[in-house]
Every structure is written in C-alpha cells, then in structure tokens.
Amino acid sequence: MGIVAHVDAGKTSLTERLLYAAGVIDRVGRVDDGNTQTDSMDLERKRGITIRSAVVSFALGDLPVNLIDTPGHSDFIAEVERALSVLDGAVLVISAVEGVQPQTRLLMRTLSRLRIPTLLFVNKIDRVGARYDELLADIKRLLTPAAVPMVGVTDLGTRSADLVALDDEPLAEMLAERNDDFLERYLAGGPLDVAGELRRQVAKAWVHPVYFGSAMTGVGGTRGDRRHPVMVASGHWIG
User: Fold this and answer.
1) What pLDDT digit, counting tens, does each position of 226-237 carry?
2) What contacts 89, CB < 8 A, 6 or more positions away?
C-alpha cells in the first residue's frame, strides 16, 4: 500500500498515524521534530521532506501489509514511479487547504493509467482555509469523475472539525452507473450490498472513495479505538 501526494500534503504524517493505528509505534512522530519512522536520512529529517521511499511492514489481521511512504517533491518523481510499479493499492493524499496541486494531478494520471486501486484522503480538515464542497468539485474536475465522498465534515477549518455519516444513495447511484447487474437490483428497489459492490469496484479502479480527516490530530479515527478510516478503508482493495 503506497502513500503518495504533492509535497506538504501530509503524506508522512498520515503514514505515521497509520503505523500508530496498526500498533507498530506507541506514539505519533512529527515531521517538524524529525522523529518520524519513515524519514530516516539526516537530510530528510533536516529538511522535513521525504527523499527516498521507505517501507514499514505490519499485520492487518491475518494479512501482512507493506506500507510505502514515497517522496512528494517533484525532484524525486523517479523514486515515486519505482514504488508505484509494486503497489496493490494507493492512498493519494490531498491537503484540504491547498487542494489539488500539479503533482497531485500527475500522480492520479499515473495511478489511473496503471489501474492501481486508489483511495483519496483529504488531510488537514482542522486547518484554517480547509474546503469541502469546492474541493470535491475540483477533485472530480481535475482528478477523476469517479470520486465519491464517504463522509461529511462538521466545523470544517477548526480544531473541533469532525466527521458525519452520509446517505448511501449517491454512492449507490455511482456504483449503479458502472455495473449493469447492480443497476438492475438498484432499479428494482430490493436490498443492495453497497459495501460489497464498492469493494469490487474499488479493486477494479472504477471508483475512488474520498475520505476526510487530519493526520496530525487523528480526527477521522473510529470512535473508541485507534483505527483510522484509511486503515479500515484499505479493506476495499485487499482481503
């Protein structure tokens, strides 16, 4: 599973949060403090950027997972491309403040061309200037029309930003557009396995779920435990 992004979108911070959620580390390091798990080179810690891809392995239930943190700076795109060639799935991180950036578009084009199942994670919802509706429109216009939001956000752009559940209807409609069998069941009005169909379509890179949260504060984790939505959502393409 690869974590990819434009520089400063919070890719390494998300990696750190996922490692904490998986129980690999006992505390979440900070890029600014130079104590994250995947930025091990002196230059990386000094400059606060990822220069070479780093891999951390852990178990997700019975499934072994290799989590790859890739560089975000365009100078190291060759390093990113090498990592993409071995991925089963990717998480494309987007800043809720800066939005879709040039490297974001390049990465999404490459992921789409390689048919790599991809989740989109909008980070930094607790930052001033964070956007939701406008950013979703940009994602669909600039990255993929098959992006579907999985959660809503309350108190956007504040330290109390949190997530709210969305109605399944828009998701079911999008899934029905891409599978005739599911469309027939949808039109018939019978019971639908939306989660199962989502898992199948994500695995085929037909749709791209969009999650929101904050890697720094942990906003977006499942209430009552240490899991993070991206960790849970990875089940859409693995297992």
Assistant:
1) 344 454 445 544
2) 1, 2, 116, 117, 118, 119, 234, 237, 238
